[in-house]
């Protein structure tokens, strides 16, 4: 398994991360997860635009520009002969004795690896169930930072309930899920939380909204409540690893007729048709 570490491709055994890395102490860093289809990196520009927004907000300097980093990730994908899977990439503020304020002279540490991962064919076909949980995260959920403890706790809540994921809500308003965005369909209109500070601006979310428009399906970026989710005709989540996955029940109650809906299916097909082929 080859890793990208700083700007070098090296085997995992040669990657040495210091215990004083601020990612380890504070979760002080940013990350991205890219999809690879047929050996091709998917939506690279959108991921790097989001990464740039996060590192700018955190005041971490990327060691290279989009073009150079894209080239390095492409080399990583080739080195690992990855066809179907993901690239995980993270960058931390660097290594220094533990003080909260930015340490002087610390150099950012960049690391990326690949992981084979099949498309989620079974859950996309069948759908998943979900449970609602209060969204206790901070007010910059639009930044993709390494601090994921609320997401980790929430996902475990889902597992404890035997469900596929949680639906986060702030005082009854649905935001998103633990690692995906949420959309509902009511009377033929696709609705999802606006891209503000309360959700991650999902790359897949943007792809699906674009596809909906080209399919002639009306979309609305307005918040909806847990009650409206329960009354929706259809619900689905979007994300790099889940693509377009139907949500067929929430808190034990069926959404619509409890089966993946027609609009969800149409968007799945449109998504599939837009997957890059070698
Ligand atoms: N929301 C959260 C909290 C996430 O962690 C993710 C992805 O990891 C998403 C939404 C979906 O974003 P994307 O479509 O860019 O994968």
From TrEMBL:
As cofactor, the record names: pyridoxal 5'-phosphate
Q: Superkingdom, according to UniProt?
A: Bacteria
Among the GO molecular function terms of this UniProt record, one is:
D-alanine-2-oxoglutarate aminotransferase activity
**In the UniProt record, does the keyword Transferase occur?**
yes
Q: Which Pfam families match?
A: Aminotran_4
Q: Which CDD domains match?
A: D-AAT_like
- EC number of the protein: 2.6.1.21
InterPro entries referenced in this protein's UniProt entry, alphabetically: Aminotrans_IV, Class-IV_PLP-Dep_Aminotrnsfr, D_amino_transT
| Family of the protein in this entry | Belongs to the class-IV pyridoxal-phosphate-dependent aminotransferase family.
Q: What is this protein called?
A: D-alanine aminotransferase
